[in-house]
Design a protein that fits this description.
The complex is a heterodimer of chains A (130) and B (114). Chain A is mainly alpha-helical. Chain A folds into 2 domains: 72 residues, Up-down Bundle (3 helical TM bundles of succinate and fumarate reductases); 42 residues. Chain A contains 6 helices and 2 strands, in the order αααααββα. In chain A, a hairpin with a 2-residue loop joins strand 1 and strand 2. In chain A, helix 2 packs antiparallel against helix 3 and helix 2 packs across helix 4. The relative contact order of chain A is 0.08. Chain B has one domain: 3 helical TM bundles of succinate and fumarate reductases (Up-down Bundle), CATH 1.20.1300.10. Chain B is built from 4 helices and no strands. In chain B, helix 1 packs across helix 3 and helix 3 runs antiparallel to helix 4. The radius of gyration of chain B is 17 Å and the shape is elongated. The chains are: A mainly alpha (130), B mainly alpha (114). At the A-B interface, helix 2, helix 3, helix 4 and helix 6 of A face helix 1, helix 2, helix 3 and helix 4 of B.
Chain lengths: 130, 114
């Protein structure tokens, strides 16, 4: 018995361009590439910190190099996309019931942005400028 | 119902996704603004960072952030590989989780060296 199941033709590298929903999906999925590289840079920085002042200065110089600046601008953009897309689906993942009804999704998302602001402000104050 | 071992990567993915959503923007803002305009140069000086990371509570917090970030990114990279047509999922899983494990060990060694 030979069947020829229908296989929809799809480009492996550009399928997500065919629908805006796919574009949004791939946009938040690829944030992990920038997040992973940034984590590796931070771990490398911790190593340099342990190796002494010159090594640490070399790491800081790397951050300030054209490549370092361009990467961090991109990384900041993708980190914000990750935050936005992550908070957006929290109401689906976390249903909070109050009495008969559920807490509205926008309230949960808003609370997350509030906590984001508090944490960001705290870290900025910790770093000396706010 | 069949028992699944997917709960562990999923927990790390979700935990890491939450932690990175809250903390990474401000961290990149600090290192990025330093790189662009020299702001926060005092906070990122060798002496200040040495004292900061020398604190055990900070070490534990930094480990928590980096550990979860690595495993979050690893799990999502596995999905991204699948999305771009790489169907050798077991191989991909070994590579990405292996890299996350190496990164976790490296984080511990780096933190203990400060």
């Amino acid at each position: 018995m030979s069947r020829k199941p229908y296989v929809r033709q799809m480009s492996k590298t550009s399928w997500f361009l065919t629908h805006s929903r796919y574009k949004h999906y791939i946009l938040h999925e690829v944030t992990c590439i920038f997040i992973a590289i940034y984590a590796v840079i931070l771990i490398f920085g911790l190593f340099r910190l342990g190796q002494g002042p010159e090594a640490w200065q070399g790491w800081l110089d790397g951050l300030r190099s054209p490549l370092g600046v361009i990467f961090q601008i991109l990384a900041f953009g993708f980190a914000m996309i990750h935050t936005w897309s992550w908070f957006k689906v929290v109401p689906q993942a976390m249903r909070i019931q109050r009495g008969e009804s559920f807490v509205p999704g926008n309230l949960i998302i808003g609370a997350h942005y509030g906590v984001l602001a508090i944490i960001s402000l705290f870290v900025l104050i910790l770093a000396g400028v706010a | 119902m069949a028992r699944s071992s997917k709960a562990i990567p999923w927990l790390l993915f979700a935990g890491g996704g939450t932690v990175t959503a809250f903390i990474l923007p401000v961290m990149i803002l600090i290192t990025g603004l330093f790189a662009l305009f020299g702001v926060f140069s005092g906070a990122l000086s060798y002496e200040t960072m040495q004292a900061f990371v020398g604190n055990w509570l900070i070490k534990i917090i930094l480990f928590g952030i980096l550990f979860l970030t690595l495993w979050h990114a690893a799990h999502r990279l596995r999905v991204v590989a699948h999305d771009f047509g790489i169907r050798a999922d077991t191989g991909v899983a070994i590579v990405v989780y292996g890299l996350a494990a190496v990164g976790t060990v490296a984080t511990v060694i780096a933190l203990l060296s400060v």
